[in-house]
Amino acid sequence: MKTSSFVRLMGAAVLGAVALSGCQQFSNQPAADPDSVQVEFKDMDRFTDFSDEPWGNAIRPEDAAAQFREAVVDEARRHLREGQRLKVVFTDVDLAGDHLPSIRVGATSVRVVKELYPPRIKLTFTLTDANGTVLKQGERNLIDRDFLMRADISIDRSLRYDLHLLRDWLRSELR
To answer: Which stretch is the leader sequence (predicted)?
Structure first.
């Protein structure tokens, strides 16, 4: 009898905590317009690491661009205030690591990730308010020389270091 009462009490406590955390999570997020974030890639075929060459990346340029776009939209919507709009134009992407032609698996080279090859992202951005007034704009050359020291990076994504750099920039820029 005591055990079943305890289990019911703990179950109710857990459900209550989950419900409260869900409400808190959604109440802290501003309501962002679906069109509040615009992402472009200028001359993507000239990017340092968006190559379709057979000895190039294991990830296709379109797939990499889609992951970058998704990261910008998701992170920006968390930080934009109501009515604000953000436009980000990527001008170059140099992914973490580098391909060494001497190291190959079949016909594809292997990307070697070490401190010597940090992720680098060049972009321009414009942040405007609901009236179209420019609040912030500029050109950024992002680089994360300590990218291998990050313990909080998910290991399940091929662009984890690059996306982490991008999300860090968005969090600091949109404060």
So the answer is: 1-19
Largest CA distance in the chain: 70
Tokens linked to 98: 């580098």
Q: Contact at 8 Å (CB) between 119 and 95?
A: yes
Q: pLDDT for 25-80, tens place per residue?
A: 333 445 457 689 999 999 998 998 876 555 455 678 888 999 999 999 999 999 99
Sheet of 134-143: strand order equals: 37-41, 85-94, 120-128, 134-143
Amino acid 101 reads P
What is the token pair recorded at 130? 């609901």
Residue 99 in contact with residue 111, Cβ under 8 Å? yes
pTM: 0.76
CA distance 68 to 163: 7
Give the pair of three-digit tokens for residue 24: 């808190």
pLDDT digits (tens, 9 = 90+) for 65-121: 999 999 999 999 999 999 999 999 999 999 998 877 666 666 566 778 889 999 999
Residues paired with residue 100 on neighbouring β-strands, in sequence order: 110
Locate the domains of the chain by residue range.
1-30, 32-173
The closest of 67, 62, 68 to 50, measured between CA atoms, is 62
